[in-house]
What does this fold into?
Amino acid sequence: MQTSQIDGVPVFSAPGPRRTTLVLVFGVGVQDETYQTRELTHLVEHLVMGSLPKRNIQCNAATTVDTTSFYATGRPEAVREFVEGVCAAVSDLSLQRADAEIGVLQAEDCSSSGGGLVESLWAARYGLTGPGVAFAGGPGPQFLPDEVIRAHAAAWFVRGNAALVCHGELPEGLRLPLPDRPAPPHRPALPRHQAAPAWTRSWTPGVGLQLSSTGPWDPALRVAADVLRERVQDVARTERGLSYSAEVVTHDVAPDRREVAVVVDAREGQEGAVAEILWTQFQDLCRSGPGAAELAHAREGLEEALDAADEDELVRSDLMDAAVSAVTGIPALPLAAWMEACTAVTAPEAQAALERVRRSALLQVPEWSDFAGLPGLQRWLICGLTREAVPGRTIRPSLAQRVLGRAGNRAIVLGDQGIAHRDPDGDVHAIAWSQVENVFPILDDGGVVVVGGNMCLVPVERAVFGQRAVDQVSARLREVVHPQRWSAPRPGTVVPVA
It folds into this structure.
């Protein structure tokens, strides 16, 4: 791997095949959004790609939790034109296609669906900060104003936040004319305090166990997680037929903090049994560590994965890791060196690695599971949920809704400290005024939804509570919530009349 610079942008290159691959990486992703601006980075990526002329080369872009990348493979001069076009587009972002690309995002159903099992684990740990934002559905891209889109592109798609990968011949005369500004600081990812292993519920299928590690990245933890995955799969799938597969997912939140998750699918109605298997096997590994045969199997798996990759794949992997490290500050290790470190892990090292993170263990099951906890696991509430009444003025559903029996026990409570919603089950979701993350309208109803940074939602539907209630809640919110927390649909958005 060679390192150099073009126009102040670090370049990581290596000789390769006849067709050159260029990847322009920016250190911005979903973690740099909020619930209110969810899908903003993805929209900028679409706008850039939509502004480029059609080319007969392989090219695309991707937005992840922490990066946005534009990549192309083809003749050196063709990929040079592509990357220089990307630089020009992000430097002077055109919003001509904004409404069309927002429609494309809606067609992809990106923002409204939110994240899956891994993302829900992140949200349980971090709420609506850092990687936890990836779980949030968000109001939708139709709530993103032009000035917010432009400001996001101007702040993050800059020289100080970019790196380039080149695999193959470096195009002659390549320029990277990006705005000469440093990257802005990332919004901190704020993990909730956890004193002991815990379990929680989420509205996502599957079962997961999340472990949080601090300090230098320890290969022993990854090996131990692989052994745990194998054990769970052996019991849950092979022996009992309760699951199809299990996998390990890792994410570096910061240079000294990462999340490791073992996620398992489960047969319908058997989520509780799979969760018990996952927790039992984890506990056993913490106590006794892996056996010699298990470690040998894990090593063979790593070696097989390395052998199965061709030379070009390995080179591109190392180049991308170096570029991502340059824009995120997350240390990177060449893949061969990482594999070598993993294969050298001993059983006592694997056991010690699990024991160090045991207190951070967070077991998650679906909301509809019959799982009710296990010894040694505390209950972890993913949002500000309580069974206790919240002081304040109670607003009940309209008389018509109560007569028809459609509203159950629901109510909205407006108090001096915040707002709360009692759901049909009698649970109370409370949001302090200082925790309000976003307020946005329900487009097909005329009501509003209040979103808390503690993962609680308070829906105030006109169809349920009536227009007078919506007006009262909105008036109180405008007294205490900063105007920047309010979302309005883009001009021209059709708001159906309920």
In short: The chain has 15 helices and 20 strands. The chain has a mean pLDDT of 92.
